[in-house]
Amino acid sequence: MTFLLTLLAAIFVLGPLIALHEWGHYIVARLCGVKVLTYSIGFGPKLAGWTSKRSGIDYRISALPLGGYVKMLDEREGAVAKEDLHLAFNRQHPLKKIAIVAAGPIMNFIIAIGLFWVLFMTPSEQLATTIGQVLPNTPAASAQLPAGDKIVAIDGHKVQTWEGINYRLAGRMGETDNVSVTLQSATDATKPATTYQAPVKRFMQGNDQGKDALSSFGMLPWQPNIAPIVGELSVDGAASLQGMKVGDKITAINGTPVTDWISVTRIIRDSPEVLLSFSVLRDDKPVELKIMPQGKKDNLGNDFGQIGAMVAQSEIVVPDEFKTTIVYGPGEALVKSFEKTEQLAIMTIDSMGKMLSGMIGLDNLSGPITIAKVAKQSFDISWEMVLSTAALISLSLAVLNLLPIPVLDGGHIVYYVIELIRGKPLSESFQIAGFNVGLLLLLGFMVLAIGNDISRLF
């Protein structure tokens, strides 16, 4: 059942993005006077479709839902009647070819901007960017960032949400340098903002690989002080199997005192397959337990520990000084959506460059299985998360398709730019050789990505 829901979620999110990407190619080709033969969502054998009586175009849904294609009349792919030569793609001016090929990625950029625009116009109550806690032995602690002050900028870029802070920090992954954090005083709003320099070394790599950017950097938002009292236990969880009981109050782990549930979960998550000593109070009597968190993997393949214990429910009240309501008008939301799209596009390209240079591991590459799992999780959270996930995937499709690799849209654009400059196309043999190299590169990346996906499952 979980597999089916994951598959349906992936189709629901990816299907429209692929269809609209191909529609971009399709509509611009028709506007440019090129004859379209086939519009397909998916590859391989045809599952369903129809042929237009007016245009003769074969619209189809095919068996392999990993992409799609628009087939156009082209002398390189078969004989073309003399009266139809002016409709063939290969006979078009290079600028028309570039427009047709670029239309797919451009459509994905438009989708991402549109979805972000809707999200920015949706009022949302969020935690203010006030530092609630600074973790020891982290860059934030080295810079002596004061808890309670409000973060207003990262590396000179203004931030208004913790999501924005997380993106800015994640963009520094693998780097060794100073991260500048600008803070506004919590006690005196008239006081000028202060900028701190926090040193990072191969940020989010080594022992910090797998952690989120905020935890790795060491500054966390306000978090409720939930008493570490066990409210529920999984029957087959490590905690239940190794003696923990409902009602136990955890007081220390490995001799380190804990006073809230969040500290407990952080230690457990960071200790997969590591034997931990739990000090608990049971009926006001101290009890010592030895529990080894079971090792699990998240959607990105990062290891984390889990003992199968849930906290006793309690009402959480967020103080006014730690929350803020964010809403933008249509104009400002549109500007914000363009800015976010630009920021994430640059971060995506930068991350790919870091993988190729070895600054970050190739295990950060994700494939269709991870995308499907993330899509499924977004449906479990909220409609806003579904739109956000779709926007991020659409943006990734746009950036990846524009890479200058033959067989991708970006590679085709390179060929047609060269044709525009030379006044004639590159030789067919040269183009075919380039496509073969590009296909090998693409297959290599796909094998690596799917291999990463599979390793994360196990």
Provide tags for this entry.
458 residues; alpha+beta; Pdz3 Domain; 18 strands; 42% helix
3D structure, described in words:
- By secondary structure, this protein is α+β, with helices and mostly antiparallel strands.
- It folds into three domains: 133 residues, no CATH class; 108 residues, Pdz3 Domain (Roll); 85 residues, Roll (Pdz3 Domain), CATH 2.30.42.10.
- It contains twelve helices and 18 strands.
- The strands form seven sheets. Strands 6-5-7-8 form a four-stranded antiparallel β-sheet. Strands 12-11-13-14 form a four-stranded antiparallel β-sheet, covered by helices on one side. A two-stranded antiparallel ribbon has the order 1-2.
- A hairpin with a 5-residue loop joins β15 and β16.
- α1 packs across α9, α2 crosses α11 and α9 packs antiparallel against α10.
- The two termini are 19 Å apart.
Secondary-structure-based class equals: alpha+beta
Gyration radius from CA atoms, angstroms: 27 Å
Q: Helix-strand pattern, N to C?
A: HEEHEEHEEHEEHEEHEEHEEEEEEHHHHH
Q: What is the global morphology?
A: elongated
Largest sheet features = 4 strands, antiparallel
Uncertain runs with pLDDT below 50, 5 residues or more?
none
Task: Classify the helix fraction into a percent range.
Answer: 40-55%
Q: Tally of extended strands? A: 18
Strand neighbour order, sheet with most strands: 6-5-7-8
Alpha-carbon distance between the two ends: 19 Å
Number of discrete domains: 3
Strand content of the residues, in percent?
A: 15-25%
The helix count comes to 12
Q: Give the overall average pLDDT.
A: 89
